[in-house]
Design brief:
Blueprint: H1 3-32, H2 37-47, H3 50-59, H4 70-84, H5 86-89, H6 92-96, H7 98-121, H8 126-147, H9 163-179, H10 184-204, H11 212-215, H12 285-288
Helix pairs in contact: 1-2, 1-4, 1-7, 1-8, 2-4, 2-8, 3-8, 7-8, 7-9, 7-10, 8-9, 9-10
Main location: membrane
Family: Belongs to the UPF0126 family.
Subcellular location: Cell membrane
Length: 297
């Protein structure tokens, strides 16, 4: 099938499915962050058409999200389903992020194909089309994570494979177009291939290798896990007579400082505080201290 036919109704349906899947992932993220309904809708709108907006801006065309109401109401429907779904909100899968990862994986597979197809339709070469397809798949999730004050999964080494499934889907789409084998069936199969690769990475915890700097035992000690069997601390050597110092006895009476030897500093009061100070009553010393009565033996 020619690419013009693939980029028509088939791409529109795949775009809506990808937007719905990305919007679900944004809504799940908002529910886990305890956002209100407006925050959930905003995160769904950012995660859904976010990557497509970046793609259309690079292509120099009017973003479809501003001309087609389907691109606008699809994230709203996803946000309403997640926010008002009582079982979804209180489900352990939502709290653990498994539904978020599954919907995000489906959107990655779809947008890696549709973004690459649209770039090829506008005359981009294979490397540029693959790059734009990956960017359109990454953009929505990265924008939603930044709005939720989370580190995007794309940039984290301790998360399962995220960029590689998208890169595989976009590269396969570009190669199929170059060989003339790109049609509806191969496009859907490529999206399922990227989706399945992402699910396998989630299932078996496939990750990219860490940089050599952080794997070096002499660098990044705070990030290194503690050893399973730590070595016992070395015992200090016994003290010898040459290392010890004997102090002469001291008299405790020499350390006592008499009150007469201390210098008392008398501070003069501020004259401004004496203006409204009431006058002291002049009483006889004998009235202040009553006489001591003799004790009767």
């Amino acid at each position: 099938m020619p690419i013009d036919e693939l980029s028509g109704a088939v791409q529109y349906v795949m775009d809506l499915l990808g937007i719905f899947a990305f919007a679900l992932s944004g809504a799940f993220l908002a529910v886990r962050k305890d956002f209100d309904i407006f925050g959930t809708v905003i995160l769904s709108e950012a995660a859904g058409p976010g990557g497509g907006l970046f793609r259309d801006m690079v292509l120099g065309v009017t973003p479809v999200a501003f001309t087609d109401l389907g691109y606008f109401f699809t994230p709203c429907a996803a946000a309403a389903i997640v926010y008002f779904g009582h079982r979804l909100v209180h489900d352990d899968k939502v709290r653990e992020g498994r539904l978020f990862d599954a919907s995000d994986a489906a959107a990655l597979g779809l947008f890696s194909v549709t973004g690459t197809v649209k770039a090829l339709d506008h005359g981009f070469n294979i490397p540029a089309a693959v790059t734009l397809g990956c960017a359109s798949a990454f953009g929505g999730g990265v924008l939603a994570s930044l709005l939720a004050l989370e580190m995007p999964t794309l940039l984290r080494w301790n998360h399962d494979l995220y960029a590689l499934p998208t890169l595989a889907g976009a590269t396969s789409t570009a190669l199929l177009h170059h060989t003339g084998l790109l049609n509806v069936g191969t496009a859907i199969g490529t999206a399922l291939f990227a989706f399945g690769l992402r699910l396998l990475a989630l299932r078996y915890n496939w990750r990219t290798p860490r940089s050599n700097f952080w794997r070096n035992p002499f660098a990044g000690m705070r990030q290194q896990p503690p050893p399973a069997n730590p070595a016992p601390a070395p015992t200090p050597p016994p003290a010898i007579e040459a290392d010890t110092v004997t102090l002469p006895p001291m008299d405790a009476d020499q350390l006592v400082q008499r009150r007469d030897d201390t210098l008392r500093l008398k501070r003069r009061p501020d004259p401004r505080l004496l203006l409204n100070r009431p006058a002291k009553r002049k009483t006889d010393d004998r009235e202040q201290t009553p006489p001591k009565q003799p004790s009767e033996d």
